[in-house]
Specification:
Structural class of chain A: alpha/beta
Largest sheet of chain A: 6 strands, parallel
Oligomer: homodimer
Distance between the termini of chain A: 69 Å
Strand order of the largest sheet of chain A: 2-1-3-4-5-11
CATH superfamily of the largest domain in chain A: Response regulator
Shape of chain A: elongated
Number of helices of chain A: 12
CATH topology of the largest domain in chain A: Rossmann fold
Number of strands of chain A: 12
Strand content of chain A: 15-25%
Chain lengths: 339, 339
DNA sequence: CTGAAAGCGCTTACAG
DNA sequence: CTGAAAGCGCTTACAG
């Protein structure tokens, strides 16, 4: 026996008032201050008795607010994205918002598709891990006036809010450590992309080398295809391990690169740090399974997610025109793998 | 300069027809067959020119269909959930649905809160990883007539659709292998819960022992709190390792138990499989970092997610009254850790 | 072949 | 102190 959902008018009929009165009371509308205690109480009680649940769709159509935020990541199955999603979910829920999500697979058409779908659903704001070469996509969103916060991936546009890390500093610090530990032939495993946050990580690497008096060697800089990570990482590491003069350190610039790289180094029985010093990126479960502790760049994921949600929601609610850009510090967690 | 979104009536005015006609054409409504080619073409073109994006909220209010499905998992940050979420997202998107998600943290009140929120948003259906002792919560959903598919966690209610694995068979097979490999003192690390899918895993363990002619020893069965996994797993393993007579094998029943358990065994330098044979549950990144290959129960995550989405959507679209229960086979991936 | 009009379930300015 | 009525942006039976 499927019951029809109770509506405002059912309560109104039951209590003998108009739907307006019911709406005022149940929403604590200022107008409700003038409604008699008796009527208010009966409305509230009847709403409970009939298990009234407001139809958010109808509400949204009228108020032009859906209390929904969109979250577009590269892949929700990536622990980095999933962790962030969880933090955003919690902050959003606390403030009365629900999250709808989608995975772009780093593909600009899929991303556009998700953006369109979410806009059709009238999201109040969007948190976007933008894909490579998507400046104009971002500009389009801004033009629509929908609150937007870029996360993780930075684009040099000053009208857009952004929450990420100090990418340059993160790798600079890592390479500095390697140099201090006496390493001179330091390889880099990064993605083949124009994404600014990654090129900033590359730049940090290059500048740290220069400042450490080491001439960068292009043969030691490997760029990995986003779409065949494992294979590319393994090939690149194999090449690095055969370089002349020998490579004595390597830096990974993302979590997946780190996991795939460490797996290969482990399977090849490369002595870390004796033969090769390693600095990884992001926290992952696998570090605990290494004979030695792994040195890695820790991104403050909780703070990142929370900041993204907070910046977005404050923008949505205060109609702040001002874009806010947040660059959080990373922590270099120093273990034994860096020598 | 924020543009007002274009609406049906903008197109109607532009072309000089009614909104009804525009709606018929843009939705390929049967009625549109009778609309002249010329008018149709102009409507379509104008929609493009004005970059018309239908307001899904308005559409939903009228049609009583939101093309949204809810997904409630224990924790979206758990790789098991995140992986499933991704598969569900893909299948749902292919069929025109969007997913909103929430994490229950195994807490029945949080779950109820999420369910209410999702129902207020008029989701067309729900995929639910139900929490412990939530039978009446599930019954309430069924009473409302909202299409529902339980995932992962089974409840003995025949009116509800379910997609999961053969939990009993999964552990039965694992223990059978351990016995065949000569193990006699086999420990079990499982959760402290009444969740049926986990008690089924326990039952598979017990029956395999019995059928293998081994008397179960309650001291070897450890139940872990869902809320302090790491600590409990480590304490339990420490106890198992000191049992008399000595334990010679251990079986983990979930991915988090496996990761935490393996970490401890690794750190304690327990010889696997010589001192202790191990069978883990679910695929995880960490297995590759073990000196030997890990034997584990592989859940078909892709099939699980896809089946859940398919069963739900077919139920939503065909109004199938019939509940469908799917139990997928697991695969015992045999490595060296099981002896 | 096309349009006028009702209605989905709410909110809210306005009137009294 | 409370209600009648308009309207959010669509869809769709009905009429012509």
């Amino acid at each position: 026996m499927v019951h029809k959902k109770t509506q405002l008018k059912d309560i109104a009929r039951e209590v003998g008032v108009s739907t307006a009165t019911v709406s005022y009371v149940l929403n604590d509308h200022p107008m409700s201050a003038r409604i008699s205690e008796d009527v208010s109480a009966r409305i509230r009680q009847t709403a409970l008795d009939l298990n009234y649940q407001p139809n958010q769709i109808a509400k949204s159509l009228k108020t032009q607010k859906t209390y929904t935020i969109g979250l577009i990541v590269a892949d929700i199955a990536n622990p980095f994205s999933a962790h962030m999603a969880r933090i955003i979910e919690d902050d959003a829920k606390k403030k009365g918002y629900t999250v709808i999500f989608g995975s772009s697979d780093e593909n600009i058409d899929k991303a556009q598709n998700l953006i369109n779908t979410m806009f059709n659903r009238q999201i109040d704001g969007l948190i976007l891990a933008a894909v490579d070469k998507s400046q104009s996509q971002i500009a389009d969103i801004l033009k629509k006036g929908v609150p937007l916060v870029l996360i993780d991936r930075y684009f040099p546009m000053d009208q857009v809010s952004y929450v990420g890390i100090d990418n340059y500093g993160a790798t600079y610090e890592a390479v500095e450590l390697l140099i201090r530990n006496g390493r001179k032939r330091i390889g880099l495993i990064s993605y083949h992309t124009e994404l600014v946050h990654l090129s900033e990580r590359n730049r940090g690497y290059l500048d740290a080398l220069r400042d450490g008096g080491i001439t960068a060697d292009n043969a030691l800089i490997k760029t990995i295809s986003l779409h065949q990570i494992r294979q590319d990482v393994e090939r690149s590491l194999a090449e690095l391990l055969q370089a002349e003069p020998a490579v004595d350190a390597v830096l990974f610039t993302t979590n997946l690169l780190s996991i795939n790289g460490l797996r290969y180094l482990y399977q090849q029985k490369v002595a870390i740090p004796e033969q090769l010093a390693v600095v990884a990126f992001d926290e992952t479960d696998v570090y605990d399974f290494f004979p030695i502790s792994i040195t890695y760049v820790r991104q403050p994921l909780d703070e990142l997610g929370r900041a993204a949600s907070e910046v977005l929601i404050s923008q949505m609610e205060n109609k702040t025109e001002q874009a806010i850009q947040v660059n959080l510090k990373t922590t270099l967690v120093v273990g034994q793998s860096s020598g």
